[in-house]
Every structure is written in C-alpha cells, then in structure tokens.
Write a structure and sequence with these properties.
mannan endo-1,4-beta-mannosidase activity; single chain; 13 helices; globular; Glyco_hydro_26; GH; hydrolase; TIM Barrel; 40% helix; GH26_dom; 331 residues; alpha/beta
Length: 331
Amino acid sequence: MKYYYLLIALVFSVVCNSQIEPVNKEASKEAKDLLTYIGNLNGQILSGQHCYSHETNRFYDSVKNMTGKYPAIWGADFYWSNGEVDPGYKLVNEVIKKHNEGAIITLMWHVGKPSDDAPYGWKESVQSEISNKDWKDLVTPGTLVHKRWLHQVDQLAIHLKEIQKNKIPVLFRPYHEMNGVWFWWGDKKGEEGFVKLWKMLFQRLTDYHSINNLIWVWNANAPRDIPKDEAFEYKDFYPGHQFVDVLATDVYHYDYEQKDYEQLLELADGKPIALGEVGQLPNVIILKAQPKWSWFMVWSGWLKTANTDEGVKDIYNYSNTITRDELKNEH
C-alpha cells in the first residue's frame, strides 16, 4: 500500500509537535496520520476532484489531461443510482484502486429517505421533503422509520468495513449541505433536528460497527438568502466539536464570501476547514485571502462547464496547491 501522505504526516508531527486526535477515540493509525497531515498544511491546499459513481475516472482523468497532474484527492458517492439497490461493492473496488495509485479518498452519501425503498429516485426521494411525523420517528429508536434507517446505515457499513480492512482512511462527509433546503435531511434545526441525526450516524458507525478509519467531515453549504434555495447559518446545524474532525462548506456560483470564511473559521475554533465541493475554482487571489482551506474538490462536470482550462491550470500550478504527484515526491 502506498501511504505517501502518511509519511508526510509523521514528518509534520515531529517537526510541528501537533498531533491531531480524531473525535473517534478508537481511530485507526491511518486516520490519525491523515488528519494530522491535513491539520498541519500551513497554508497549502490539497487539490481534489469528484467523480460520479458510474463514471469513477472521467473527470479525475480530465484534470490530468488539462494540467498534466492528478488531483491529490479523489471523491465519490455512495448513491444507489441507475436502478441498482446497492452498487457499493463497485465503488469499494475503485476506492482501493485509487488509494493504491496514491490518492487521498473522500466519500459522501446521497441517500434517500428511510421511509422510501431503494433504489432512491433523486427528486422523488433524495431531494424530497420528509414529513414531520417521519422525521420524529426517524430520530426515535424503536419506530419503523428508525429501523429502516438502521438498515440503510448497516448496508453502508458493509462497504466501509471493506475499505477499513484495506487500511484506507476516508474523509467521510455524509448528509452534506444540511443547512440548505434541498435535501430531506436539510433545514432541520434544534437538538432533535439534524444534530440528532448526525450523532445517531456517528454512534452507529463507530460504537456499533467499530468503523475507525473515518475522518468525520461536517460539510455545510455557503450561506445564502435566495428565496426557496436558502442556506442558513452554520452554527444552527453544528453537532459539536466532539463529533466533527473537519468543518467543510460547498461553494457554487463563485460565492467565496470572506464573511462566510471567517464565520466557518470561528466555528471551527482550530479544527481544519475545507471546501468540500466547489463549482468554479477559487482563484489565487481568493486563496491568498482565505489561506486556511485544507482542500478543494471540484464537483464532477463543473470542472469543464464552470471553469476554463486556463483557470484550472492556474490553480493546479499555484505554488501552494498540492497534487497527487507531490504527495508521492514528499517522502
């Protein structure tokens, strides 16, 4: 196994004396080392590219074709699409392949409402409303909806355990953009809202399933006040430092507001922050004004539809941007 970035983490931990402990007290050595590396980037930023589950190489390879370099981070999604009830084993194989090639792995989870049956339709389930009754049942152990949610998580755990068996750490960002209004888990404020769902997931995967290779990335959306497309303040959906390793946000339509960056930094209170998804890449001026971002990840096709080849090259050639080949060359 090629844990290039883990060797870098060891160097940083010795030189900087700032080992960072994951929130999971039983976290694997690989997860600890990766989190320490991320926490000690010191103004550098990891490049990343998301790929659809049915096109696991297309846009990752596009970056290489455009810049001559592969992104340091490869991202994908446990979304049961294309009529399949559970294609997760295919994704696991690709995770192992990308890890062996030297990439850092980040995974997300677009999942349908637990009151629905898989395969989950996008508009019909993932981006649909959940009733107040179903939400209350979801966060109440013993109810039918809660049991169906447990089944969802347990199916996911099967694949996460296979990744763990291969000693691969994962930047795990489930139930993302929870401060927005477009997913069934979104816009649920209060202790019985999203915060409860996050804690339930954390406890099921860590305490029950003993999955210890995850770095828990709480991934919101940049706040905005567009009618019927709002994303609200970060703090109203944050489950607390004891359940989060990295705080991330998603930025589309070039909305790199300095106030939002400062707000997330304040909420993080020393924990790493990241650009979990972006449409248009930030330019060098923005990255210099916002130097604490640990990584960026361009969302699939937005690489080409929202960015110019020259803009992508500029960021990949920026002296503070880390690509996959630079991860290799560091050891």
